[in-house]
Fold this protein.
Amino acid sequence: MKEKPLILVTNDDGINAPGIRTLIDVMNEIGDVVVVAPDSPQSGMGHAITIDSTLYVERVVLDNEKQLEYSCSGTPADCVKLGIREVLDRKPDLCVSGINHGSNSSINVIYSGTMSAAIEAGIEGIPAIGFSLLNYKWSADFNASKQYVKTITENVLKNGLPNGVVLNVNIPDIPKIKGIKICRQARANWVEEFDKRKNPQGRDYFWLTGKFVNLDHGEDTDEWALEHGYVSVVPVQFDLTAHHCIQNLNTWNLNDTEINSA
Amino acid sequence: MKEKPLILVTNDDGINAPGIRTLIDVMNEIGDVVVVAPDSPQSGMGHAITIDSTLYVERVVLDNEKQLEYSCSGTPADCVKLGIREVLDRKPDLCVSGINHGSNSSINVIYSGTMSAAIEAGIEGIPAIGFSLLNYKWSADFNASKQYVKTITENVLKNGLPNGVVLNVNIPDIPKIKGIKICRQARANWVEEFDKRKNPQGRDYFWLTGKFVNLDHGEDTDEWALEHGYVSVVPVQFDLTAHHCIQNLNTWNLNDTEINSA
């Protein structure tokens, strides 16, 4: 590479999370790094953006100033928007998000702040990757992840990504990973179990808990890859149109129907 | 219909918004209505869920008790989860969300709390529709919308929806709507312009503002339909896999590459 690529790094666990610190280390081997990340954890934020309140972004000094870093009061998607429009002088060559503490495989992509940052960058036409390790603990060991993060990132920089596509990369939490598989998103969901309690004033409240259920036993899915010791790479798009349904919906003749209600 | 369908109604503008009150009126003509909606506006929440704090849901009496209503401290996706698991005795036959005050066409689907509720219901295997009117004002006139909301809802109850698909319905804010079009999501985005200000303590802060840019002039898109006076109906899926890219990504041979960094 002639010139070093400019890499915007963000996450949803907050700027001090070990996962993003690992990601920054790897990106420093590849390009010029600027960090714009939430000042506090934002997990489960989906693709939230801040439209009804104010946003703060400020320079912070971490890590002996090896890279420029900014902490932001907003969501991961806000960080990307602010990073591109207010912090960086030019459009970055790449945006990476993570490494998330915990899985964003299969349906979790929908709830993921990590992936919302990557998708936001993708909407802006920037190649983008979200990385997640299958260990939600703060003390998770990211060492085995590093070479896979590097290989995938270098390939994205070399090959580019198609318009409208970003990568969702999940990494199994095992010391000896078998390799990388390109996958589709498994059909899975969460079966919620709300934990109902009473507050000191006697008012009921709930904690959201749940059990993950994989309904999809295809061997081409991200869940299969992860269960079998592989890093999963799912190309993710933000054109949500179910194109295969359009013809069927047209047979409903919505402009002709007169339906009598019960 | 032999038995009246059970309909879960929610939104992201809050339980008192005129849009949801209109939606409840229309649904009362079709089935048995239960409302579980946010206690305050949640616009721009994307598919956020509440995992790090507590959730309150409580019965509220509105509208002369024409239907059961619950207000919830969480996001639209939380409302659907709580509605299904804690409020309703049986799985609803339909979930409708809206009518949103403001557009959720094209890329807005990604940021939309209204659509996140419909998608959450879809993940649970419940037919679901998000409705939005192209007028963000509280005083918007929902009258012209009503017959279209009713026709589309009745057709969904009659025909069902394919697994993994929900509908994103946007309604132009004009008195004489031309009809309904099945569409694909237009390729469009927001060009952000952050409004930078100083707070009374002299610290910089930002307001997110922006300009919507439609990059897609296809006549089969939701933006085209809306501009030309039609209600747009986009089938939306939550399998985000860009299936068309998998073959291409496999040519990268990620397990063989050894790349020398710069």
